[in-house]
Amino acid sequence: MPAESEERAGDGGVETQEQRGASSVATNGDHLVELYKEMVFIRVFEEACSRGFKKGKVGGYMHVYIGQEAIATGFLDAYREGDRIITAYRDHPHVLLLGSDPKAVMAELYGKGTGMVKGKGGSMHLFDVEKGFMGGYGIVGGHIPLGVGMAYALRYEETDHIVQTYLGDGSMSIGYFHEAVNLAGLWGKDGMCPCLFILENNQYGMGTSVERTTAMTDLVRKFDAYGVENEKVDGMDLEAVLEVAHRAAERVRETGKPYAVEALTYRTVPHGAADFLEKYRTKDEINKWRKRDPIGLLEHKLLENGLLDQDAVEEIRNETKQTMSEVTRFAEESDEPPLEELYTDVYAGEDEYMGEK
Ligand SMILES: Cc1ncc(C[n+]2csc(CCOP(=O)(O)OP(=O)(O)O)c2C)c(N)n1
Asked: In 66-214, which ranges are continuous DSSP H helix?
């Protein structure tokens, strides 16, 4: 691998918790323990669905978020009821963190009628309107204009809700990104676009590194071109993410102006189910980033500060695994959707129409 890949296996120019020094862990320890449990849950969930995929039980295509958990965990901590969340296809954690039923999520991956969208969407098209989760999209960048449009609508309806629009580094070279962020900046001048863009920069789009797709690799600065203020955070450090997430969400809520945060992270597993060989990166690079695994970092901090001990860690993992076996059993034992379901939800019906005619 070229030297650039070695360089990438560092902190990417973002100040890390280790470099910042003192941890604020003691001030909000109980909450951090709760978030730690949520991160462990997401990880164990995705390990379980990866096994299901290998056994051929999960249909369609599937992408997991392993290595990136601190980002969604931190930003969704700033979620308020009535906000909207939209993301691409690496969407399991977002919906789980919003409190959707894990059994319904797993059943959806298994293509069962008890799935959260009746087994018709699968991994990439999760949806839970009640929890504010507006998908789950497979077309890279295609959801960004939807996030911006929803943000406009929320302000037009005179609410103080915001949209969290998650996007990958790979989506930033696509037209949708530029068109949507341009409008966000423009509408934001009148306080009409409360959209928080969360750039999950895991440094690759499938097998292509950021350096091979764009000449200007300081990605978050692309928002400057459209008048959207922005900053960067270490996406492996939950505490750092929490700090920026709450501050940014409140800023967007108050001003109605969009804001962007680039969270530098790393996907420590293959891109998706068909990426067996990972020829585009070295094992060395992967291992270096695994040492900064967001769950491992937080666990270490909690142990160091006496907020958890080794027994408690074991207990959390065991309990989570037990819950997960119930979740998986539910998915396995559920029935396929009935044949009639082929003809429903094809077009939006009267009661599914969301605006005035
Ligand atoms: C419009 C479009 N082009 C190409 C693809 C194929 N594709 C699937 S995932 C992906 C990479 C996207 O990378 P990124 O946005 O960084 O997200 P990540 O997978 O790293 O989370 C591509 C090119 C697609 N789904 N949609």
From this structure: 69-76, 92-97, 102-109, 144-156, 175-188
Atom of ligand 1 nearest to the CA of 206: 11
Kindly report the number of other CB atoms within 10 A of residue 294's CB atom. 27
Predicted confidence pLDDT, tens digits, the chain (357 residues): 333 444 454 455 566 655 554 445 545 899 999 999 999 999 999 999 999 999 999 988 999 999 999 999 999 999 999 999 999 999 999 999 999 999 999 999 999 999 999 999 999 999 999 999 999 999 999 999 999 999 999 999 999 999 999 999 999 999 999 999 999 999 999 999 999 999 999 999 999 999 999 999 999 999 999 999 999 999 999 999 999 999 999 999 999 999 999 999 999 999 997 787 899 999 999 999 999 999 999 999 999 999 999 999 999 999 999 999 999 999 999 999 999 998 888 887 766 555 554
State the distance from the centre of ligand 1 to the C-alpha of 186, rounded, in angstroms.
27
Global model pTM greater than 0.85: yes
Structural domain harbouring 171: 3-11+25-335
Distance 349 CA to ligand 1 centre (A): 31
**Distance between CA atoms of 216 and 206, rounded to whole angstroms?**
19
| CATH number of the CATH domain containing 39 | 3.40.50.970
Does 208 sit in the ligand 1 pocket, CB within 6 Å?
A: no
According to DSSP, the β-strands at 163-168 and 195-201 are parallel
In a domain, 215, yes or no: yes
